[in-house]
């Protein structure tokens, strides 16, 4: 029996030296909307996608000793083909092909694959801070 009762997913947090840039990316690329954020001693931007997925963008304290993420950078420079399998967030879209075309038009480097079933398409890329993202689409 699980220790937690009624557990459900709440949010993902990302640290950034430029939360506004990162928020703009998630709004333009994946359709997040900014929601009211608490007034804290550091800058934070809360984003919402649909009714239940939240993303908290937290200003990185330059004095912290925490290491940068495995791909953190002022701009994404890593090759999406090398995206670590265990270091990404995945979203689903119903307009996969046009979504991938939009990424290309915006100059975002991508790596596309199709699962062996031939129905599941995936595209891998990085946000401006180098956090790994996957977007999947399914054919019926």
Automatic annotation (TrEMBL):
Domain VOC: 8-138
Top-level taxon of origin: Eukaryota
InterPro entries membership: Glyas_Bleomycin-R_OHBP_Dase (IPR029068), Glyas_Fos-R_dOase_dom (IPR004360), VOC_core (IPR037523)
Pfam families attached to this UniProt entry: Glyoxalase
Name under which the protein is recorded: Glyoxalase-like domain protein
Organism ancestry: Eukaryota, Viridiplantae, Streptophyta, Embryophyta, Tracheophyta
């Amino acid at each position: 029996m699980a220790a937690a009762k009624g557990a459900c997913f709440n949010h993902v947090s990302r640290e950034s030296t430029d939360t506004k840039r990162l928020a703009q990316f998630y709004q333009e690329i994946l359709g997040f909307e900014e929601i009211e954020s608490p007034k804290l001693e550091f800058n934070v931007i809360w984003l919402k996608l649909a009714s239940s997925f939240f993303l908290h963008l937290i200003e990185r304290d330059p004095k912290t000793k925490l290491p940068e993420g495995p791909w953190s950078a002022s701009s994404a420079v890593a090759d999406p083909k090398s995206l670590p399998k265990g270091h990404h967030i995945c979203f689903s879209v119903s307009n996969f092909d046009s979504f991938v075309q939009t990424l290309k038009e915006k100059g975002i480097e991508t790596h596309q694959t199709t699962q062996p079933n031939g129905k599941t398409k995936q595209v891998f890329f990085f946000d401006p801070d180098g956090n790994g993202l996957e977007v999947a689409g399914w054919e019926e």
